[in-house]
Design brief:
By secondary structure, the protein is of the alpha+beta class. The protein has helices at residues 8-27, 75-81, 201-229, and strands at residues 46-48, 59-60, 63-69, 87-91, 93-94, 99-100, 103-104, 109-119, 124-129, 135-140, 143-148, 165-170, 174-184, 191-192, 197-200. Strands 1, 3, 4, 8, 10, 11 and 13 form a 7-stranded mixed β-sheet that branches. It has a 4-stranded antiparallel β-sheet with strand order 2-15-9-12, covered by helices on one side. Strands 5-14 form a two-stranded antiparallel sheet. A hairpin with a 2-residue loop joins strand 10 and strand 11.
């Protein structure tokens, strides 16, 4: 065999590995035909989507969210107490090293996040929820739409669960409230480290099916590679 030439079996293996990495890069890109690269940013807990067509592009719910540290609040509780003590935190990000009263936070703790979304009409929408460390509850307009694990105020009272999922809801004309309770006593980083995505029900479900197909492809490719080595 000439120097520098690979056996045929090794060539096939390299081609398979190359295909896997190509697909990974394609799926992990920052933007796609569905997700807008120029999503508006939330400012002080408000995100205006009245000028956006959510049936055309999926929007990232990034920017400044209201942040209530060591509080597990409901919408009703916020209405009673007001939001005068609200602080702001950028999403996506960990709450690690965020400062409250000049004290730097660790990964352990619990908090409530809140965002108001302005939409121009009533329509069926969906939210694609990433992994949130490490348990959460999500309400949209006072309706509980998603949970993962058990939210608690200590390691003993909470149950961790890593669960990306999709939540569907009907938007209101004007303000729509997203409220998220998060607790973490298991992972070194706490909070919402990845973007939540919002779009039409059809767009969000399409993203979900694409994600499932991607995971099945990677699992199958790894099984084939493992079988080859065996």
């Amino acid at each position: 065999m000439a120097e520098g030439m690979l056996p045929m079996d090794n060539k096939k293996l390299f081609l398979l590995v190359g295909l896997i990495f190509t697909v990974i890069l394609a799926f992990s890109g920052g933007c796609s035909s569905q997700v807008s690269c120029k999503s508006p940013k939330a400012a002080e807990g408000i995100l205006d989507l009245t000028q956006r067509q959510l049936d055309e592009k999926v929007i990232r719910l990034d920017g400044q969210w209201e942040f209530y540290w060591n509080q597990l609040l409901t919408s009703q509780k916020l209405k009673e107490t007001g939001v005068l003590n609200a602080k702001w935190i950028d999403i996506p990000s960990s709450w690690n090293r965020y400062k409250i009263n000049d004290k730097q936070l660790s990964g352990d703790g619990y908090a409530t996040y809140r965002l108001l979304i302005k939409t121009k009409e009533v329509e069926k929408l969906g939210i694609k929820i990433p992994r949130i460390f490490t348990a959460y509850k999500i309400w949209v307009n006072d309706e509980l739409v998603a949970t993962a694990g058990k939210v608690g105020k200590s390691r003993e009272t909470m149950t961790p669960q890593y669960l990306p999922q999709v939540a569907l809801f009907e938007s209101q004309q004007g303000n729509n409230e997203i409220l998220i309770q998060v607790s973490n006593f298991y992972h070194r980083s706490g909070g919402i480290l990845e973007s939540l995505l919002i779009g039409s029900e059809k767009q969000i479900m399409r993203l979900r099916y694409k994600s499932i197909a991607y995971e099945l492809f990677i699992s199958g490719s790894l099984m084939i590679t493992g079988a080859y080595h065996l």
